[in-house]
Amino acid sequence: MKRALTIAGSDSGGGAGIQADLKTFSALGVYGMSVLTALTAQNTIGVQAVFELPPSFVAQQIDSVVTDIGVDAVKTGMLANSEIIHVVAEKVKEYRLPNLVVDPVMRAKSGDPLLRPEAQEALVKELLPLALVVTPNLPEAEALVGFPVKTLEDMRQAAMAIHAMGPAWVVVKGGHLEGDVSIDILYNGKEWWEFTAPYINTRNTHGTGCTFASAIAAWLARGADVPEAVRLAKEYLTEALKAGAKLNIGHGHGPGHHFAILYRKMGWES
Predict the structure, then answer these.
(1) Range(s) of the domain holding residue 249
(2) Which residues does the annotation mark as catalytic?
(3) Within a 13 Å sphere around the CA of 251, how many CA atoms are in the beta-carbon half?
(4) Digit-coded pLDDT (tens) for 206-237
(5) pTM for this structure?
(6) Which residues, including other chains, have CB under 8 Å from residue 5's CB and lie 6 or more apart?
(7) 20 to 30 A from 212, CA-CA: which of 11, 33, 119, 220?
(8) Does 54 reside within a domain?
C-alpha cells in the first residue's frame, strides 16, 4: 500500500485540515499519516480558537513517521507560522520527501486567518521551491502574486508568476470564478492544461482546498503523473461536492462527502 503524509492543522469539526486529508487518503486507497501543526477549535461557522504546536514537536512527528513507515507523497496545509514552515522545509530536504503538494492555506472558508501575515514570505522563499505542485485558490493566488485574479487570463498570469517562485507545477483553482463551470489551470513552465467540471451550487464547500490537494497527493503516491493526478483529484472533489450538497452538516459551510463513491457502491443513503 502506498503511503501519504499530511502536515497540517486539525479541524475539530472534521470537514477540513488533517481530518479531511485522512478521509481523502482512505477514500483513494492510500495509507494516511499525519503531522499536526496546530489545533483549531472550529466548526462549519468559523474558527473560534487556534493553538499552534511547538516547531520542535512538528519536527519530531515528521521524524517518527518517516524513519519507520516512509512516505510516497506529502501534502501540506495549515502551517500557521514561519517557524513551522522553516522546520517543515528543512525536514523535506533532510529526508528528500517525494511528491510534495503545497496547499498555501491562509484563511478558513469562514475568512478566519490560518497563517500569520509575516509567514507568507517564509512560505514563498522556503517551501514553494521544494514543491512538486502548489494549489492556490483565487484569493491565495492574489495574496501570493500581489495583483487581482478575477478572470481566466488573470489565472494564467498568476500561474506564471507563482511558477517563477520555484514550484515545478502550479494549479490555480477557479472555484471562485463566476459562471456555471469550474475551471482549474495547470502550468509547468512550458505547457498548459485546463480541467473543467460543472459548478456545484452548494454552501457545503468547507475543506474543498484540503480535499483537492490531498487527492492530488494520493494519486501521485499511487504513481500518476501530475496532469493525471490533478484530473482525477478534480473528479473526486466534484463527486464529493455533489453528494455533500445533501449532507447539510452544521449551520454554516458544511463539508463535502469524502466517501460518496463508496456510499454509492454500497447502496447507502448519504
Answers:
(1) 3-136+209-266
(2) 173, 205, 207-210
(3) 3
(4) 999 999 999 999 999 999 999 999 999 999 99
(5) 0.96
(6) 32, 33, 34, 35, 65, 66, 71, 73, 74, 75, 97
(7) 119
(8) yes
